[in-house]
Design brief:
Number of helices: 14
Shape: elongated
Helix content: 40-55%
Distance between the termini: 49 Å
Largest sheet: 9 strands, mixed
Oligomer: single chain
Order of helices and strands: HHHHHHHHHHHHEEEEHEEEEEH
Number of domains: 2
Structural class: alpha+beta
CATH topology of the largest domain: Endonuclease III, domain 1
CATH architecture of the largest domain: Orthogonal Bundle
Strand content: 5-15%
CATH class of the largest domain: Mainly Alpha
Number of strands: 9
């Protein structure tokens, strides 16, 4: 059980004018027509909040709309096959969110009768919902008085109040949580919460903030001190680890061999291409041996290598195409499937793998 530890607000950090100014700004200049706004449906609010984690609004909107078309409520999402959920999520990234999303819907059905709880503490016990997301869901759905703390909020606080230190450090983050709780208004929680999000996303942006449009321009300490560009303090850069792999595009007639990845880890639960270790002096022999396990071929062709960046490392991918002249009856592994190429556009594939396959088969004239 991951019950959130709530600390009490620090009265020394209270500032009623902050919320008053922010609420007035949001009502006049904030965003009011996003697809998930103007509703108290906790399911829709929750869906949007999960999708918006580490993802821009413009990227989320089409996925949110497609999800609602297919899964209009918690019951329909909970009952869906995981493959369909992952397929609709494909391309949005951070795939653990999709797995948690599906499990959360099941838990809400089983533990809460299909209704999201109004208590932020209970919400935070559900898969994929942290303290800030729980507060946002509770505030927008039930008008709960709960503080959020996402990247936008951290940036606003760091600049307006000249907060030194990297916001990801525990001590700095804890201090920001105390401030967030102390600044909460008694009323208009939805407008206040949305205002924090809107201000960070549209005005107090990471680069080139529009200070002239900010309701806190006159009191912003970072602006007064000429430190807007250096706050919030950035995390010390480390060398990005790099990894390499070879992917096999095994083709027979109008089908390609796909492999379901483990449920956890990178691209967890998605279909992808079979992989081999980094090409070396033994690679061709290993490639031929691997391909021979699925059928007979006349050879292979090396495709254009490409790279894909993840949060914590960069992956270099060397794809190789093998056209089988004859396919063995059994692929040999339960997690392997021969997939029709004309259905690849709707397959639960990682975005770079789908892009590769569509480029291959579209240009090759197979569909």
């Amino acid at each position: 059980m991951k019950r959130v530890q709530q600390s009490g607000p620090d009265e020394n950090l209270a500032d009623p004018t902050f919320s008053t100014d922010l609420i007035a700004w949001q009502k006049r200049h904030g965003r009011h027509s996003l697809p998930w706004q103007n509703t108290r449906d906790a399911y829709r609010v929750w869906l949007s909040e999960i999708m918006l984690q580490q993802t821009q609004v413009s990227a989320v909107i089409p996925y949110y709309q497609r999800f609602l078309e297919r899964f209009p409520d918690c019951a329909s999402l909970a009952a869906a096959p995981s493959e369909e959920v992952m397929s609709l999520w494909s391309g949005l990234g951070y795939y653990s969110r999709a797995r948690n999303l599906h499990q959360c819907a099941k838990d809400v059905m089983a533990r809460h009768g299909g209704k999201f709880p109004s208590d932020p503490g209970l919400l935070a016990e559900l898969p994929g919902i942290g303290r800030s997301t729980a507060a946002a869901i509770a505030a927008f759905s039930y008008g709960a008085r709960a503080a959020i703390m996402d990247g936008n909020v951290k940036r606003v606080f760091a600049r307006v109040f000249a907060v030194d230190g990297f916001p990801g450090d525990k001590a700095v983050e804890n201090a920001m949580w105390l401030r967030a709780e102390a600044l909460l208004p008694e009323h208009d929680l939805e407008a206040y919460t949305q205002g924090l999000m809107d201000l960070g996303a549209t005005v107090c942006t990471r680069s080139k903030p529009n200070c002239a449009a900010c309701p806190f321009a006159a009191r912003c300490l970072a602006r007064q001190q000429g430190r807007t560009g250096e706050l919030p303090v950035k995390k010390a850069k480390k060398a990005v680890p790099e990894k390499s792999t070879a992917m096999l595009v095994l083709v027979h007639r109008n089908q390609v061999l796909l492999e379901q990845r483990p449920s956890h880890g990178i691209w967890g639960g998605l279909l992808s291409l079979p992989e081999l270790d980094v090409p070396d002096e033994t690679f061709i022999a290993r490639l031929q041996q691997a391909a021979g396990g699925y059928g007979e071929s006349d050879g292979y062709s090396a495709l254009t290598p490409f790279s894909h960046g993840f949060t914590h490392f960069k992956l270099h991918i060397a794809p190789y195409r093998v056209d089988l002249t004859r396919r063995h009856q059994q692929a040999g592994e339960a997690n392997m499937v021969w997939f029709d190429v004309e259905k690849l556009a709707d397959a639960p594939l990682p975005a770079p793998v789908k892009k590769l396959l569509l480029a291959i088969f579209t240009s090759g004239g197979l569909f």
